[in-house]
């Protein structure tokens, strides 16, 4: 069962589509958020969860102190799961603004004027590296100074192609999963 691990909405069960998503495991989310929280990157953050799937990463951030979360996914089953999960978390954390955007990550980034402090990019493993590079390039103007971007991929995937404006600073492996972190200049 996928659930929110900690914070105000801790233990809230999350709906998972029957197919097409690969929710980040509890173990990976706990390790990732322990690191992010230790650096003060979640409290009062504006967060985007691109390729949201269930919305687990963005909603975990909402539970742990983010003030705004945008869940972006183009697949109808994922959008339905994100909406249901956002509603469940919103009941436990009413102060956070949660928005579900039913569209491709690249299209969303090209059309929004919002800016973000923390962004999760967790596409299906079969998404082409070129698409991820395009998403990261479109993301840069949407980032605040000192923003952190976390890209989650298979350990068999190459390191993302980082655009100008994003500097990689961390790579952590969790079994089959690798999480790269990059930061914008402060």
UniProtKB/TrEMBL annotation:
SUPFAM superfamilies: S-adenosyl-L-methionine-dependent methyltransferases (SSF53335). One of its GO terms (molecular function) is methyltransferase activity. It comes from the Bacteria. CDD domains: AdoMet_MTases. Keywords: Methyltransferase, Transferase. One of its GO terms (biological process) is methylation. This is RsmD family RNA methyltransferase. It comes from Curtobacterium citri.
